[in-house]
Design a protein that fits this description.
Layout (H helix, E strand, L loop, with lengths): L16 H10 L11 E6 L5 E6 L7 E8 L2 E6 L4 E5 L2 H11 L5 H42 L1
Antiparallel strand pairs: 1-2, 2-3, 3-4, 4-5
Helix pairs in contact: 1-2
Amino acid sequence: MSVVAFERKQNTGEWSERELGTILAALSAATAPGTGREWETGVTEKGDVQFYLLSPLPDQACELCVSRIGGRYILEDGFGRLLFEHRNLDLVALHAKAAVPSTSWLMVRMITLWCAIRSATDEKLEPMLLEGEELFVQFVPQLAAFA
């Protein structure tokens, strides 16, 4: 028996409006104007379409990638690790939405700064509070004598 290798049917190399609408609806919070994230589409060397979620400038690193290979949709993170794969784009879009961090980098930096300030002030104030407590413990019995 001989096996004949058929060439894979080439896609048109474009996302349909429905497909793009589904992906963008799922990632609407991630691509909101205040986040600085952008999206782009591309095509692999085999003609398979890809959707990229890009991080804010100046890096614009790929945070998420959705590819359509044959009839399957593949979701990968920015490092190329497979997150989810399915024939149903709605399911892939839900996983894509869950994979995107909802907290912006600015908020993360502000929280980190707040924690650093709290830590520094606690280190400075703790000795003063302990000294005040020691003084209070020493003088309370004497104050009680006046009562």
